[in-house]
Inverse folding.
């Protein structure tokens, strides 16, 4: 099993290397280390959201409300920033995480206590969250000159050569790698999705585990919401419109099984990087914008096919002598 | 049934009131109603300011600034009916729906009220003329000129648009490409599409800066794109090297102008629009022939095309000298 996992991620790393090679051939400056760091920084929000999404998908659920959660939390902290420009940014960050957590818990409760299919719940909350933004603002935008400088500076501040935004993504990768492999909650996520019946017999409350998955996803989406609006210095209803699908695609490319139970933080990281590299490379390699979407889509499908091949476990023959009898 | 009686009652009342109004009006001021999409929107408040300016200039004109409280056609129809009842002389409307308000406006014209539309038009049969804030060729020329004005020695410019299928943006870009030969030395190197998403627009702007190191201007004829490009240029530390320009709203662009990433940008001026609409309504109500030139005071004059519409002027240019006057308006 570990060998298989290793090979799948190795395959993805190979694909990323080939991708970078092709881009370098068209536009050499793209693979300069400083530019790759920029790409990583630009992909950080996707990495964060993909980790949250991966945890949800592990438990056989899906969270389509992440982008809407991001947009709503981003708008809420922006409005708080306008109302109280002097509020230290650390409180803004805590509010963002807290608010996102609440939104995630709301999803989780509906899935856990009312046993509504997660795709329906989050499709609903996705619309509700965007609707609330409109109610809060009547469609008006919060613009860069209305945000305080400290509010906008956090994602851009360099620490040891990397912007804080990148450091947050790195920290999340490390933190959740530990959580997923070294804590009972992390193992419960795998168990609840991999084999819910066995998990129940083993004393794991599957519904509750799913609730915690949504809560974590919500918390990450909330944090990303703040990072997003402060990075692009604008908040409005359609912030990150359609981004939930990119997040799910990153997970799928990263080898997270949509059936639950299979996936790693490292895989989600690679999946996000794969999409991030494509998104950043397409503008510079001088490809017609009309074919860009087709290329992104094609890359996703190829990656998924490759993954599916790697995933396929051959059936085990338990009765050797019956092998040729049929 | 109930509704029908009510409508006929209202129609009857309004007719009576209309006749009384006409008789009483003779010695009064001319009353021009400026009907907007909804009250409380900065853009329209500014238009009303322009209308008052025109009224003061004309003298003997009273402006009735009105509209529904939410942007619905039903609300506007009620407002129009009440204006008919008050017997105003002219109605200048920015419609929430081009067709739904037609019957009410026709009724107004039947009562001898001058009806024009501005900003957001009404179908041809429901008004005497329509005043567009600007026209496709004017906008195309303006966005290119904004960039060229700050590039005395010429150089490379790129366009960052919305989606590949946005009708407005594509028309403006085509118009800009058409007048490109009028700006010698200006080289349009690329047109990219940010899909009106801030993250994609930001990346496209970054891509432009990488691909074209000598780029001097990014033209974004979309509010999302211009903001994202301005942020990308600021983050890349290229303020002063690359000028981000295009179409944007003063309230959204104030930060970009302040940081210097944007030297100037354009959008239609609502004050001029309200002013011109009032001027046109006044001249039509005083008997100017709509098939000839219609004067609009300090804004010059317009001639209607075959659909009965006209374009006011070039989009208005905003820069550090006037942004503070407008950023709280719209």
């Amino acid at each position: 099993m570990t060998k298989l996992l290793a090979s799948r991620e190795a395959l993805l790393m190979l694909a990323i290397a080939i991708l970078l090679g092709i881009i370098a051939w068209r536009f050499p400056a793209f693979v300069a280390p400083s530019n790759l760091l920029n790409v990583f920084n630009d992909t950080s929000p996707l990495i964060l959201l993909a980790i949250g999404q991966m945890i949800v998908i592990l438990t056989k659920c899906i969270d389509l409300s992440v982008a809407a959660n991001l947009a709503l939390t981003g708008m809420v902290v922006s409005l708080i920033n306008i109302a109280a420009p002097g509020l230290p940014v650390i409180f803004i960050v805590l509010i963002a995480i807290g608010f996102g957590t609440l939104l995630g818990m709301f999803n989780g409760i509906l899935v856990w206590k009312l046993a509504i299919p997660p795709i329906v719940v989050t499709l609903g909350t996705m619309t509700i969250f965007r609707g609330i933004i409109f109610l809060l603002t009547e469609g008006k935008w919060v613009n860069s000159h209305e945000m305080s400088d400290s509010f906008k500076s956090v994602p851009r501040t360099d620490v040891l050569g990397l912007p804080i935004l990148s450091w947050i993504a790195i920290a999340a990768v490390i933190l959740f790698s530990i959580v997923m492999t070294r804590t009972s909650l992390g193992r419960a996520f795998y168990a609840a999705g991999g084999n819910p019946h066995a998990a129940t017999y083993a004393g794991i409350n599957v519904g509750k585990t799913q609730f915690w998955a949504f809560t974590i996803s919500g918390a990450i989406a909330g944090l990303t919401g703040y990072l997003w609006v402060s990075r692009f210095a604008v908040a409005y209803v359609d912030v990150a419109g359609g981004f939930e699908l990119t997040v799910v695609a990153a997970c799928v490319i990263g080898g997270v099984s949509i059936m639950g139970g299979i996936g790693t933080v490292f895989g989600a990281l690679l999946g996000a990087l794969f999409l991030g590299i494509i998104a950043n490379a397409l503008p510079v390699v001088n490809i017609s914008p009309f074919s860009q979407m087709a290329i992104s889509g094609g890359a996703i499908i190829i990656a998924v096919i490759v993954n599916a091949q790697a995933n396929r476990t051959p059936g085990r023959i338990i009765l050797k002598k019956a092998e040729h009898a049929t | 049934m109930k509704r029908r009686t009510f409508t006929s009652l209202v129609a009857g009342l309004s007719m009576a009131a209309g006749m009384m109004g006409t008789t009483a009006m003779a010695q009064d001021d001319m009353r021009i109603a400026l009907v907007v999409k909804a009250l409380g929107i900065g853009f329209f408040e500014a238009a009303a300011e322009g209308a008052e300016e025109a009224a003061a200039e004309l003298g003997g004109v009273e402006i009735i600034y009105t509209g529904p409280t939410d942007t619905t056609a039903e609300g506007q129809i009620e407002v129009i009916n009440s204006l008919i009842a008050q017997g105003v002389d002219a109605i200048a409307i920015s419609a929430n729906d081009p067709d739904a308000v037609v019957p009410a406006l026709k009724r107004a014209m039947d009562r001898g009220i001058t009806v024009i539309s501005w900003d957001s038009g009404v179908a041809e049969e429901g008004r005497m003329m329509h005043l567009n804030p600007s026209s496709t060729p004017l906008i195309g020329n303006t966005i290119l000129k904004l960039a060229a004005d700050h590039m005395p020695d010429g150089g490379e410019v790129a366009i960052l648009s919305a989606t590949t299928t946005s009708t407005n943006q594509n028309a403006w870009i085509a118009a800009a490409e058409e007048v490109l030969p009028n700006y010698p030395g200006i080289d349009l190197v690329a047109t990219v599409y940010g899909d009106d998403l801030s993250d994609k627009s930001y990346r496209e702007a970054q891509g432009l800066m990488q691909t074209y190191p000598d780029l001097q201007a990014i033209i974004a004829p979309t509010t999302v794109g211009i903001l994202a490009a301005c942020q990308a240029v600021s983050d890349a530390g290229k303020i002063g090297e690359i000028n981000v320009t295009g179409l944007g709203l003063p309230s959204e662009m104030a930060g970009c102008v302040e940081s210097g990433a944007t030297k100037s940008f354009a959008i239609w001026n609502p004050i001029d629009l309200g002013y011109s609409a009032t001027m046109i309504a006044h001249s039509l109500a005083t008997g100017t022939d709509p098939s000839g030139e219609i004067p609009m005071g300090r804004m010059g004059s317009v001639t209607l095309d075959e659909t009965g519409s006209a374009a006011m002027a070039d989009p208005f240019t905003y820069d550090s000298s006037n942004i503070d006057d407008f950023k709280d308006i719209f």
The interface with chain B takes residues 27, 29-30, 35, 38, 42, 45, 141, 143-146, 156, 228, 232-234, 238-243, 279-280, 282-284, 286, 289-290 of chain A (CB under 8 Å). The first helix of chain A runs from residue 2 to 26. The mean pLDDT of chain A is 88.
